[in-house]
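task queued by scheduler; priority normal; single chain, no ligands, no partner chains; default sampling; output format set to structure tokens
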Amino acid sequence: MTAQTNIWTGRRTLGDGEVSALGFGCWTIGGPFTDNEGRPIGWGEVDDGESIRAVRRAVDLGVTFFDTADVYGAGHSEEVLGRALAGRRDAVVIASKWGNVFDPDRKVMTGDDSSPAYLRRALEGTLRRLGTDYLDLYQLHIAPSIEDTAVLAGACEELVREGLIRGYGLSTDDPERAEVFAAGAHCVSVQHELSVLHDMPSLLAMCERHDLASIDHAPLAMGLLARATTWKPAGSADIRSVPQAWMRFFDGGVPTAEWAARVGAVRDILTSDGRTLAQGALAWVWARSPRTIPIPGFRTVAQAEENAGALEHGPLRAEQLAEIAAALA
């Protein structure tokens, strides 16, 4: 593992500009939605007023990067984020994603579409819901064939030329597909999973080779690294309540004994130097690479304040990274 050795500024490079080193992921504020089989793929009921207050509080605390997707809440996340950032558009960087097809009335994700024609239609919908005429970062949210991935990278270049987006990227844990997108002139990032419980050295190395930002979802392990000890089962509209192949941290809406034990093994290190558990987990992500931009989810003003407070502490020290690696080994 490598540690961040530069002076901490609380900023990261994204394309030709800078953003706060912490972004906010907006999946959680989208509200309930399901897949075609009725399984929840949202985070349960939300209070839109509280979501808007939380976004605005984050901006006040120096957070300038917000990541959403058209499918989150079947369009609802983008609508809420647009309302929250009205009048503040020039102060923030907004990223969204496309590729999933959904029914906004039924709140159901119905499939996917990787065609260039759908790319343009999806962007039009995203801009309308966000209330903006351009997007700072547009990311492919699915994993089509390698050939289709190359075609979509070319289609994104056309959107850049038209001024509709400023850069693009890919949301994937697959280095091969990420390499295809990385060849594009205006590809600026790869979004992938990264947390103290799930390292991704191959994708961090790829971002280094291609001079890309590493946008890191699930930095708090779907909430497992956001709470100190107590848990109650997630509600039936919460994605964590239903077993899924990639939902490794939870079973029946609560953390598995194995993963809870791993958190216990590193809790004292993460919470040292006055950090909360969540702040320590974000500090680990920053320490892994100077390219990382973690995007934890949030649903309340209190969560926004706690996450943003991590910026004051900065990344973990090299010796703390080594202690964590040893504890998890």
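post-processing summary
- Residues 1-5 have pLDDT under 50 and may be disordered.
- DSSP finds ten helices and 14 strands in the chain.
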